[in-house]
Amino acid sequence: MRVLTCECGMTCGGGERPPTRPGERDMDNGLVTRRAFLQGLGGCAAAGLVGCAVSAGGDAPDKRPPNIVVILADDLGWADVGYHGSAIKTPHIDRLSRQGLRLEQHYVTPTCTPTRVGLITGRYPSRFGVTAPAYGKIFHDDTLTLPALLKRAGYHTAISGKWHMGSPPDETPRKYGFDESYGYFHGQIDPYTHHYKTGEASWHRNDELLEEEGHATDLITAEAVRVIETPRQEPFFLYVAYSVPHFPLDEPQRWLDLYLDVEPVSRRWYAASVSHMDDGIGRILDALDRTDRREDTLVLFVSDNGGQKSWHSATQYHGRYADKSHTVLGDNRPWRGWKGDVYEGGIRVPAIIRWPGHLPGGRCDAPMHIVDWMPTLATVVGVEPQGDMRWDGRNIRPALQGRSGPAVERTLYWKTPNARALRQGDWKLIVFNNGKTELYNLAEDPYEQTDLAADEPDRLVRLQQSLAHISVGDW
After folding, report:
1. pTM for the full model?
2. Are 463 and 439 in contact (CB under 8 A)?
3. Are residues 332 and 454 in the same domain?
4. Known catalytic residues?
5. Of 121, 176, 261, 353, which has the fewest Cβ atoms less than 10 A away?
6. Residue 93 lies in a domain
7. Which CATH number do you get for residue 415?
8. What pLDDT sits at residue 104?
9. Which residues 6+ apart lie within 8 Å of 25 measured at CB?
10. Using only C-alpha atoms, what is the Rg of the chain?
11. 320-373 per-position pLDDT tens digit
């Protein structure tokens, strides 16, 4: 293994185990076998320095634009994948992590619509007034999306799964650059009826509603495999947006049987849904192998936000889950917080990229954000958009290849209905709408336990000024 040394002089990918988080419990829910996910978080991993520990095999010359497959899990927690130490069985995600590059400081937004908007626009979702799950019209009329950009570059573009970036009949996938669409429009559906929580129909093909039998995970996977196996000359962009492990959960017995000893039962449902999704991801990877497309396909896997703590409703989904309280769902440990929070547990998620011959394997600890992928993929396919794209993201390919040069302090930004947050280098500022302000040094305190706002008044003022400046572009 060829190891690159970070600018701090330490080798990322190993290092001392960080201090135990105050109040940290053993993984007592039966779904984390050890504290393996804590290994290797020392040194540069907790800091804001750009650097990756990689194995040889990156930066072969580009011959043709690659196929691109983006796989998005829904509400998958940091500690809910095998390669982070979970006992949830994710052999195919783990295989991808061994073959690809693990992105250990990959940030998203705390909820679903904002992350998806950031992914396909390269801009912070607050630039569109999106700070939470949203419906209706999302994008400005002149917005150039990632699928539209790739379509102009000669790609066939397809989505299988969750849309949640606008409402039918007008604000649907094919309007925004997808040649073909399949899945559901809304934020979540019953996995079998495919209806939204209000009872509204949501399942569609090419933006036209249809009724179809089967579990959503299986249908989304089958469509993704169909797109991959369809003969075509042009490269393809395939966006696979799974519905799990977002509630409501209702899994086939085959997957539940893997976790009969897990309590509470809602955690069993959650684990089963993750393994079910993992099996689908395996089928997608196998389809790439079977069609000899593995070597010329870039695969990105990421969760849309951190895991959710719990859920229950007596009325949604026609009351089908009234007696099925989801009391325990995701696991974001060791990070603080849940889905919806701007603490690390809500915004720092599992992520992997694999592009054989072009990107190395190993791990990368460079801080990056979901908004980085549109400018990065534009560079990968050789597209230079005309005019000012107003991207908030940047091309992170040099960081992925371990050749980012001198240490660069990233400034990352989040806005939710309740708070705004800024990460600048190792420092993270959170300003809540109620006036409360918190400041953390993530290099020394990755679990956000010690608020330094009162101890660092000058730094606090500088970060507040940066926050005010970056939020000017919000709509």
Report:
1. 0.90
2. yes
3. no
4. 112, 164
5. 261
6. yes
7. 3.30.1120.10
8. 98
9. none
10. 21
11. 999 999 999 999 999 999 999 999 999 999 999 999 999 999 999 999 999 999
